Amino acid sequence: MKYMMYKNSQSARRQQPIRFALRSASLGMTIGTLLSGAGVCAQAAEPIRPQLAASDLVEITGSRLRLKQDQLSGIGPVTVIDRDAIQRSGATTVEGLLQRLSASAGFAGNQNNSYWVRNGYGTAQVNLRGLGINRTLVLLNGRRVVNGGTGANSSVDLNSIPLALIERIDVLKDGASALYGADAVAGVVNIITRQSRPGTELMVRYGESVRGDGEDAAASLSWGMRDERASLIATLAYSENRAVNLGSRAACPLAESGGKLVCSGHSATIGGRAHYVSGPETGKFINFRQSLDTDPAFFEPYVNARHGYNTNPSLNAVNPSQRTSLGVLGTRQLSDQATLFGELLYTQRQSSQLATPGILGLNRSIRLGASHPSNPVGYDLVLDRRRLAEAGPRTFFQETDTWRAVLGLRGQINDNWDWTLAANWGRNTGIDGSTNVANLDRVDATLDTRRCANTANAAIPCANYLGYGNVTPAVLDYILTQVTDTGGNAQKSMAAHVRGQIYPLAAGMVGLASGIEIRRESGWRTPDPLTARGIANTNVQQAVDGSYTARELYGELSIPLLADQPMVQSLHLHTAARYSDYTTFGSKHTRKLGLDWRLNPALKVRLNTSTAFRIPSIPELFGGISSANLTTTDPCSGWSKLPDSSVISQNCRSSGVPAGFTQLGNTLLTTGGANPDLKPEHADTLTAGLVWTPSPMLTLSADYYRIKVANATQALGGSTRLAVCYNTPGLNHVFCSPTSFRRDTTTGEINFLSAQPANVASEDLAGVDLGLLYHFKLGRLPFSLNVDASRLQRYDITPFPGAATLHYGGKLPSGRGSYTHNRAMATLGMTAGVWSGAYSMQYIGSAQDPDAPAGSLGSRIPALHYHNLQVRYAPSRHWDVAAGIDNLFDKAAPFVRNWTDGNTDTMTYDLQGRRWHLRASYRW
């Protein structure tokens, strides 16, 4: 049964104006601190070193200053993916590039169209260090990008930026809140667009798997012009990828049985699984007919091996999507001191995901009395799970429009100083929803014999949900509908920056960068009325509507301490500080301090320590609060029967719970959802490493990192909160506060219990990054080898104070992605005249499943190598062609016991298999 998708018009939303105001006291304090540091260093009396020419300086991600070009090495704290590397990779999306990085880990979505990303199906994110997608800051040309998705999201859709417009991608693997503001806890991804060049370039690409599915196609047209005073580049890009059915890669869900992997179906069956609530078989499960050639009234004891539903043919390993993007960037020199620049980017996306047929009995209980006409067993039943296979699979769909515009001025004050003033506006709107969703009120109506009828064209047809094929087309037409949600994200900001050289010291010039930024973020989401009211057979959602304003001031100094001394060719102190004021929680300071010590031309040591923070997202703050009676255990129930030495007994008595108190029932009214009182998470980061260049052809690097996150947001159930509180001596725990729960002073009953997220968790991770860049020749052929490897030594999470620490390092915890100890990406490139090529290998180390019994199948996931090959032929500067193969040896994804889909972890491993692509470019 098919339903047409429709698009609701999104009404214009009024945005409050940004108030341009900063606290003058904090402004003066920050500038004063920075300049006083410069004054101390200015006491040196040695001869002044020559200053660097402006042409020797560039801005690199990780600093607002202009630094020496040789610091942009592409290894160590900053990984650089330049345009040549992008073309050699054969990737069609930014996501595809970044998820191959050794620093990527954990949950981020993948090639299957981000099936698991809440409110952002079809979006693509990056997760550095596995710390979470909302702890990695994404920038475009050094400025923030509006969040993507379908409303009130907390991350950028990377694929909204077409590859055809990208010159390079800088990945800073270090905390950088002092430089870039909130959310740069794990690092920063800064996407740099191409500079204008005269002429036109047309690119077309096509690829598919060797099984003949998963077709992907892309085309782009770029045009540019440049003269002495102006430049302009415009790019129109289109990309499309088609579905790969999961059943073609994994025939059925697998589980271990007798030391072997066997098919294991889902317990929500197409015939319907029920249990007796009366009669001699009370509590036992039965299942109704599974095929059309069986008696419509047939039933038998439920057995998973016989009745379990094979979900895989109703899912995709790769889901389809289409993207159309337009990008325009230009500059106009107004005078010798000022240049006008602008950016405009628009992306329209359509994406969908195949989902299994809906399940009745999951969101609302269905009880059928012994006398109900559809009940053939003669006893009262509860229908636990009935999959509506007669309706066919559901389809989740999304359509988004993302706009971004930047307008600014930049210029020179003199040879040593430059400035930038820019306004940044972004807006993302979208619709999303699902087909074949059951209206639960109408389901109830079809079972109410007082309201329904079996006559033709009845207003409410009577239904029989016990047995596959017993649900008639008339019933399906009556109960099934399409739900559609709307939402969006908006961003407005103004920023002013200035940088230059402020004072000469014996070892060089002191560099200063400073600026102010004012930003307003908004997010909203309006669920379908049926979803909001709990009538649709989906998860209940509440409307989200919130915004905040941030006002920030930062400063950065680079102070040359020594130069041309024994064991010191140069020694620089880098320091930065930022003051942030948010309307949602107040003010916060962050700082960064680092040393850059070059011992000699071949060896450099670097050390950085910083603080960073992540602000609560709009859904976390403004997502609404819901209440429900949830199964909960009150530890004070029957406390007076416990020994007096019991901690629970002592705590219940001291908190005024009456002796003899017994919990009434097994549920408590519990609040959940968002928490408007959430505070920022804060982190301390440390990186220390060295870069060794023994020859111009070889560079090696090693960097140690450690990140400690405190005040991390965590949502915990009411039973856990109560148990922890009353098992803590003296009720000395954060879960004992009035914001967690309250009791009636007379009866002792709990009349308020919160399961809302709170700032109670902590995280601690550490590891080592290794890099190698080697240029060499074999005969007359020049080669380059680039290796980027990462060793995650540990990743420990403490869900709340006093809880047992979870050790994720070397593990693949269910639903969180892989935290394997070792990852690496190595690329060998070669150029020989008109021919060039690249061979790359991605290594994902072995991992343990923490929830699987030791020695069981899937308890240890083996290490895996993916190999990719690309060859390019460029006989002329006007045209070139390239061909490539990904997953060259057709490596199958390993079995993961706690699989997310396809019997593996789809956020880590490749389900599609070997695939090829062809690309051709023509320039004129």
- Whole-number count of domains: 3
CATH homologous superfamily identity of the largest domain:
TonB-dependent receptor, beta-barrel domain
* Main sheet characteristics: 22 strands, antiparallel, barrel
Secondary structure tally: strands: 46
- Tally the helices: what do you get? 11
**CATH top level label of the largest domain:** Mainly Beta
What structural class results from the helix and strand content? mainly beta
Question: Percent of residues in helical segments?
Answer: under 10%
CATH architecture term of the largest domain: Beta Barrel
Low-confidence stretches: 1-57, 69-76
CATH topology tier name of the largest domain: Maltoporin, Chain A
Overall geometric form: globular
Residue share in β-strands: over 45%
How far apart are the termini? 50 Å
- Arithmetic mean of pLDDT: 88
Radius of gyration, in Å, reads: 30 Å
